[in-house]
Amino acid sequence: QVQVLESGGGLVQAGGSLRLSCAASGSIFSINVGYWYRQAPGKQRELVATITSGGTTNYADSAKGRFTISRDNANNTMWLQMHSLKSEDTGVYYCRIDSKGRVSWGKGTQVTVSS
Question: Using CA atoms, how far apart are residues 7 and 26, in angstroms rounded to an integer?
Fold first, then answer.
């Protein structure tokens, strides 16, 4: 099994910053593609950012210029650095990793941005 664990969520004021971490362990050999999603109560889960094994990144329009996704291939770790946070960024943030055709999800970490 592949285990995925997010951390780093919390309460932050609008305009502040948070850094989320995602650690993959278990039977994983490598992360092909990593994703950060978020989900607000009553809303569908939405894709925030992606990063490939080669380091290519993509962001949702709402995240561009404010969020940065990165990874450490040697340690199977991924991060999401968030700046200039807004109240609409509030939600549970989930880490997803794809490895050899398998998809694994973390259980999420709560991010709350107060205005």
Answer: 17
Instruction: Write the pLDDT tens digit of every residue in 70-111.
Output: 999 888 999 999 999 999 999 999 999 998 889 999 999 999
Instruction: Report the DSSP pairing between strands 33-39 and 46-52.
Output: antiparallel
Give dist(CA 98, CA 17) in Å, integer. Answer: 27
109-114 vs 10-13, strand pairing mode: parallel
Per-residue pLDDT of 3-20, as tens digits, reads 999 999 999 999 999 999
Query: Distance from CA of residue 61 to its chain's centroid?
Result: 15
Give the position of tokens 């200039």. Answer: 84
Distance between CA atoms of 18 and 37, rounded to whole angstroms? 15
